[in-house]
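Q&A FORM
Asked by: J.P.
Topic: structure of Fatty acid desaturase

PROVIDED:
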Amino acid sequence: MDTTLTFDAPAPAAEAPKGKRRIADDTALLRAAAELTRELSAANPRIYWADFLASVVIGYAALAATIMAGSVGWALAFGLVAVLALYRAESFIHELTHLKHSTVSGFRAAWNALLGVPMLVPSFMYEGVHNLHHAKTRYGTAEDPEYLPLALMKPWTLPAFILVAALAPVALIIRFAVLAPLSLLSPKLRETVVARYSGLQINPAFRRRAPEGEAARLWTRLEVAASLWAVTLVVLVATGAIPLRAFLIVLAVASVVAVLNQVRTLVAHLWENEGEPMTVTAQYLDSVNVPPPGLLPALWAPVGLRYHALHHLLPSVPYHNLGTAHRRLAAVLDPGSPYFKANYKGLTGLMWKIGLSSITRGR
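REPLIED BY: S.T.
REPLY: Here is the structure written out as tokens.
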């Protein structure tokens, strides 16, 4: 999961002068990545089911414990567990966009039923959007829904980029409880809802096309389910059937999950492209790996997201095999290979690097 829903995010800065040196593809890196990982593209259903179900059970149990906690201290402790577990479970939406669903039968339906619809992030909000981010000719351009030149924008856009994510749960309730039903009465509103408010994206200029075929049918089923749940939730809170305190706690946990994901999104790339198409190697170098020995990235970049740059080289490799792929490549590539230039130690250094670039180069 690389993005958070934004309604009106800060607009990108004016385009920088062209002419930045184009980074050529490193054939040794691309060849090694392809040859050393051929058998790693198969997803293991047992890992997917065990990891996801454990995350969901822990997340919802901790959320219930947060609501019922008798003290602020226990509420904060349980709330932290709920945030981390639900964030991990929600991050599987990223895997859904790359997974051959026949290999893990029923996983997408289970993900939507247990988390996507209840948390108002059904998979259609990401499927059909994220794949555009991996298109070789779209990455880093105005047609990429998941890219903004954040390192080249004004410094105040970075904290705004993170803080706006706190409003995502409220925005999602409005999208499904209000806009979706109203859009049935207005073709023009429906067009706007589909184009602007139906994708987990960070590029405010991106406009989504209406789905077709089976994708459209899946979209309809999931949108109806999410809208019914959102309307029911609003009614239950309004009538007191769900205590306001419990609802606000759930909202707070969901907001922290969204902010945590937005922080991870901020450090998933270096955000230095000025809108021109990039080679695969350039895309890799603009992306970020945070490999071991660091332990904290397993919490803030779960489900393989700590290998985000490697994922851009090998998008078909499932999350549970990315660590093996990383070790194989690190063992055979020359120390001067571009592969090692996308590896970073941790969150703080990355945030400092991007923030400093925004201060010195932002417009």
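FOLLOW-UP: Residues 213-238 form the longest helix (26 residues).
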